[in-house]
What we know:
Distance between the termini: 27 Å
Order of helices and strands: HHEHEHHEHHEHHHHH
Helix content: over 70%
Largest sheet: 4 strands, antiparallel
Strand order of the largest sheet: 2-3-1-4
Low-confidence stretches: none
Mean pLDDT: 78
Amino acid sequence: MKFTFYRAIKFAFQDFARNIWLSLVTITVLILAILSVNILVSLDAISTSVVSSAEEKVDISVFFKQDVEKETVDNFIQQTQAMSAVREVVFIPKEDALVSFKIKHKDDAKILEALDVVEKNPLHDALIIRAKDVDDYNVILSVLQLEENQEIIKEQNYTDHEIIISRVKTLSDKARSVSIALTVIFAFIAILIVYNAIRVTIYTHRDDISVMKLVGASNSFIKWPFLIEGILFSIFSTIFAFIILYVIFGAVGPYLADFLETYNFDLIRYYNDNFLFIFLSQLSAVIILNVFSSAIAVGKYLRA
């Protein structure tokens, strides 16, 4: 059995080298299919990060009226914190807000001069409210609109990133659809090419196969070299695809890093952290695809 398996591997490598141009075409198409899959993986990772980052920046800023008593503000903060939709509440006293304002405009003499003229702090106590989920902001806003709350609130600003999130999701869905379509097309082409590559290999060895069948060789003995050849296509195409992928990352990495820095996401680091899972899952999928194509081609010949 061991000797038979080694012979099958030997025959597979011989056929791979003997039909080198057909092998290269097959590997090229498989590489394109794998690259298409990785475009899909990259887009999904990037869009998830962008949406998550945008959701983190969504908040409601509540500014209290100047004459509201501290106890009333404290009660409002406690009620807000108790809401199931609220994830975080940050209170910013007007004194702290004034200090931050002066630091921010330290180089603008006119603004600082205007503050001196006013003499008193023109800013208001503020409350930053962040929800557990983007959809929860409507619930929080409806509570803020209640009459008893409006009596102490001077104004409220809702940092609405829903439009950005919606656009990112829409763009991501469209790009994902294109990527899936390309992957399906290349996968279908790959199946046809692997199928025909194995059929050509079988045709070139038709006399040898006939002799093996005459001397009583089993179908599994005949099949193994072609199945192993399909596995070779898978291994080489996956390795070369990832080499090309990292070359592309190296070329566009600096530009991509600048764009994604705002969203605290590094695509190369994402691939490095998940390399084994991404590589092995794609290699397994390509092996299954090629072995399936090879098995159909060989099975059809043996039944003929």
